[in-house]
Amino acid sequence: MSLRKISLMVLAMILMLSVLVWFYPSSSDFEKENPSWNGASDFLDRFQATPLDSFDLLPAVPRETTLIVVPYLEFTSADLEQLGKYVSSGGNLVIMDDFGCGNEILEYLEVEARFSGAQLLDPLFNYKNKNFPRIFSFAPGFAGGEAKSVTFNHATCLEGVPPGHVAALSSYLSFLDEDQNGEWNEGETKGPLPVMAAFEVGEGRLTVVADPSILINGMLDMDGNREFLEEVCPGQIYLDQAHLPDVLLDEAKEGLRVARTCLITIWGTLGLIILVLALTLKPVWRLRPPGE
Amino acid sequence: MKKPALILLVLAMLASTLWGTVASGLTQIPHENPATAESRDNIALLMLHYADTFDLVASGKYLESRDMIEQLKPDYAHLPEELKFIMSRLNDLLADLTDGLDNLDAVLDECESLLSQNELNEASWKITEARGLSAEIGSLVGNVDAATDEMLLQAAAFISPQEAARVQAAKARLQEELDRLARLEDQYRALQESIETEAEEKEALSVTDLTLHVSQSRAWVGENLAVSGVLKADGVPLVARDVSLHLRGRHVATVTTRGDGYYAASFALPYWWYDIDEVAVQTFYHPRGEDGGSFTAASSEETVISVLSYPSSLQLEVPGEIYPGSPVNIRGKVNSGGNVAGRDVRALMEGELLFQTFTDDNGYFQHDVVLGDESHQGKHRMYFIVAPDNESCSAGVLAFSSVDVLKAKPEITMRAPGVIFLPRRFELTGEVHSPLPLHEAQAILEVAGASTTATLNEGDFSMEMDLPFSFSRAGPEEVKLSLVPTEPWQLPSECTVKIFVINLAYLLAVVAVLLALAVVGLSMRRFHGSWRRKGELPATAEDSREPLREEDIWSPETGPVVEENRGIILKAYYAAAAWVQKVAGVLFSPQMTLREFLHQVISPHSRFAGALARLTGLAERALYSRHVQGKDEASLARDLSAQVKKQGRRERET
After folding, report:
1. Cis geometry, peptide bond prior to residue A289 (ω within 30 degrees of 0)
2. What CATH number belongs to A41-240?
3. Chain A partners of B29 at a C-beta cutoff of 8 Å?
4. Which of A193, B227, B304, B363 has a Cα at 20 to 30 A from B261?
5. Given pLDDT bands bounded at 50, 70 and 90, which one contains residue B540?
6. Distance, CA of B433 to CA of B266 (rounded, Å)
């Protein structure tokens, strides 16, 4: 088999893989285009929410809008500044985190609450097993009283929340699995533990929730999760996508997107046209009648 | 394995490995698919929980036990439905038992307190109440016991072998706590009996009597009232004893009896304005010190006094809709039979003071209110409080009015050309309308990532934007105009229109490519044509094509032969054609004419050309001509066929 044929096969393989990568749905957690259980496509559809790849795209007038942040990647100082500006100018910021970088934001906003970082387990009040604790104790008036209960998925709890700011508590049978053995041991913190908190920051409002998974496709319709989100997310909703960890598929998709972006510019398209012309005209260029 | 297949296999494996790695979607976020999560009950924990609750009840910690029962919500527990039902019933019984025990505890405390004050009448009523409660508790303890048994019975079906040991331990603890509950019931019964014995002992005390006289049956708020009466025991006045005066059950004063057992006092009727038309006055005597062993307690009859005051009312004029930042006038009038001038009026919204003002001589007030930018849209209640005026005995009043806090959304109409050829200056016109004043709003015009800003007022507007050559290739684009008003009563607004963009440079480039392709096609055709005419085509890839398989070679039947020579010619031709197909790898398809087959063969295989061309001529004549073939032609055909085979064989060898 000639080198030319092998090259053609490799090229075909690359093209086939590119097509697969382009059309295969994303599998990233909380990702806007991921239709499987861990994606956020249903949330975006039903809440008419806008996915945000950069805080630069936040509205200049943040009143009557809600920004949901799932902070799994570290925030730059510019990001933190933009978040601070958003909430202090009247925006409604909802931080949903369990084991990510949410404490960076809370520290920057000078809010006392912190995410514990240890897993909250509830052996009795749960959906299926203790990793899915059910929350049914809400502060009066919080979340409009519409949501009767919210189900978490591998959540944590909040620490250092001033009493007046606690918005929801876990059950008294819940506990923090600090040694990660799945059982309660002497010395481990027992419930009820704060899992949601609300603060006024500047002219805006900050809601802290100890689990981001309530908005994924597989959890959205569970118990009162949807009603709860409707209550705490008024106005136009923005879902931050810039601080989520990428899987290889997304990186490959991003690479293809960059290539596409380059090609759809005028110069990129012209370059492609010239390349096609050169390849097309090559046989003519090389052909010589036998006499010559 | 052949080399091409091996290469293909390696490439396929490489591709699938790459794809597997890319599509695996490994994630570091700790959560799991709820649909596939494993389901696990926790029966032992449920029993331990009830044991803890029984423990609290048995320890007399009724408040904590009530909290615990309230938190145990069967609907949210991950348990079988049968257990949830029993759990719900057991919770109700436990709540009733806790309430009953709490009440019994309180009633018995009260009995003890009444007996210590020698209030025998009251004490006897309470003792009867305690007897009833005690019987009820006995029944409740029995029901809790039965419900717990039922729960254990139902739970047995759901206990896994791994959980059995834990459940047994929990059951033992539960039983222990149930026994404690039964002992608690006995303790209360013993206490009740000891109280009854004490009450019987106190029946030998001297019975006291207390009278009360109030100077008026009606009084204005703030007015002074005089009260008097006599305290006696078995008809003998009791001297220098303390009598306490109560208004609406509240202690207001203590007076001491004189030599004849008489007591007297005066007090100002408090400024009780709201929902109080009458007040009850009563006096009490509680024996203290040595009196405790001699006299019973006494209370006078209740005397009711009508309370007089001037009621007030408030008429309000509040606009139903308020726009933040836009001033609104709120006015009202205070009406009262007493004083209406200089009355203190306060207005509140969302718990915050909006304004404070005072009424004029006729009771009117008004105030201009401007709601801040931060006011939330929607329905709000505005509360108005008019303070009471003590001097004129005029009561206060509380009223509210519902207001709708609104923001206006400007309406934008845009006009843009449907098709735009780039590069050019793009012009957008339109109108902005709002029900409220709109000045110097910031307008942001965005088209495919490019943007420009301008300041707009209400009415017609026109905006321009340069769309350069590099703006877009071609296709539909969305033009978005966002309006950010400066006034707090306005909401941001936006409007979009679609335009179709055609980039002239891009169009020219596409035309150039098409032209180039056409030129290449024509050139290639001409190039091949000139060589074909010369019959000197250079060796091409077709020369090295693979020989055809035997089954692919088409060789038609000659059919019944009318003339012998004709048959010989056709057989010779088909034999040669079959040979040529095999050697040259050119397929003689059934729909092909003999001449077309010849053309297919002669260009890459010139050696066949002469003999095959002549043989084709003979075969065509044999097939389509009326001419009768002679022996010489048949012989020539045979020779030509042999020549073709010979040349073909030679070619194959080389």
Report:
1. no
2. 3.40.50
3. 29-30, 38, 72, 245
4. B304
5. very low
6. 72
